[in-house]
Every structure is written in structure tokens, then in C-alpha cells.
Amino acid sequence: MRGGALVPLGRAPYLRRMRLFAQAALAMLLLSRGAAAAPAPHVSWSPVLIGNFAEWSAATHQEAGQTICYAYSFAKTSRPVLTGRGRVVLTVTRRPGAARDAVAITLGYQVLPHAGAHVRAGGKTLGFYLEGRSAFAPHGAEAVAAFAAGREAVGSFPGPRGVTLVDSFSLNGFAAAYGAMAKKCGAP
Predict the structure, then answer these.
(1) Strands, DSSP E only, in 32-173?
(2) How far apart are CA 7 and CA 33, in angstroms?
(3) How is the chain split into domains, by residue range?
(4) What is the C-alpha radius of gyration for the chain, rounded to an integer number of angstroms?
(5) Nearest-angstrom CA–CA distance, 121 and 154
(6) C-alpha to C-alpha distance for 181 and 57, rounded to whole angstroms
(7) Which residues of the chain have pLDDT under 70?
(8) Domain 9-185 adopts which CATH fold?
(9) What is the pTM for the complete model shown?
(10) pLDDT tens digit string along 67-93?
(11) Is the Cα torsion angle 69, 135, 25, 122 positive or negative in sign?
(12) Can you say how many angstroms the Cα of residue 166 is from the centroid of all Cα atoms in its chain?
């Protein structure tokens, strides 16, 4: 967002990078949990696991000689079941020189552009905007604070044919994963 307006995907290259981070998060979780039978998504860099923290993991990768850090977790529940939907991943990403942490949820289906959504965590309801196959928090620091204060994050997203999809994420281990990420990459 710039000045309250949504940034079109073509002018927001960080959205493409966030999708890659979510793919890397999936690859790291599969590798860290011993699911060697599942193929890792093709990416041009190799993620390095910092650690697993209850329901969350933290990892890094190198991009243009800089270390990018992220913490991630997969949805514990998704209702209703949507046939063909991919894994739902909540990711907090920290880039060197960025003014804030980026918070995204890879939804696993194509969303209506610029539709609204919300996530409840830590007693707060946070507005998210949708683009491509993901939902993004316009205010990363607010989302991180709510996650740190909560036990669960529950997102409501418009789905196909007017159905509302509800995904829930455990926040057990979020603070530790976020702390490990912050220690590795420093403050935003």
C-alpha cells in the first residue's frame, strides 16, 4: 500500500518474492520434518533452516548477497475443504534495509484482486489485502504484535462461488521463531 491505495502486482515486485518465500517455507518444513518423499519446489536459492519452534520454523536464504530471514507455519485447519487447494502458509519475512517485516499468507488458490480479508489474533482484527494467490498485511508490525500476543490466528478469506474460507494457525512457537529470525537478521 502507498498512501492508502493498493499497489498493483506489476509495481510491487516484493509480492513475487514473498510467494517464493512461501514456497521455500514449504520446502524447509518438508525437509525439517523428514518428508523426503515430497519434491521441493524449484527455486534458484537454497533455504537454510535456523530452527523449529513448536508449530513454527525459521529459515534464511541468500538473495543478491544479502541474507533474507523468515518465520513460517502451516494452517492447522482449513474450512471448508476446497478441492485442489494447495498448502496454506503464514510467513513473516525480514529483508535487510526494509522498514518493516512483511506478513503474508499463501492461500493456495487464486483470489479476487483487491478483495479484502481479515485475520484475528491476540484480541485484534487485522485487515489483509489479496493479490494473486496470497493475502498480505499492510502493517507488518501490527500483525507481528498481534501474533506475539495470541495463541491462534484465524483468517477469513473470500473463496470461489461466494464461499468464505477460514484458516487457523497455531501461534505456539511464533515468538521463538520470530526471535531466532530477528537474531539472525537484526531489526527491520
Answers:
(1) 48-53, 56-63, 66-74, 77-79, 89-94, 102-106, 116-121, 124-131, 134-136, 152-158, 164-170
(2) 36
(3) 9-185
(4) 15
(5) 7
(6) 9
(7) 1-45, 188
(8) Immunoglobulin-like (2.60.40)
(9) 0.76
(10) 999 999 999 999 999 888 989 999 999
(11) positive
(12) 15
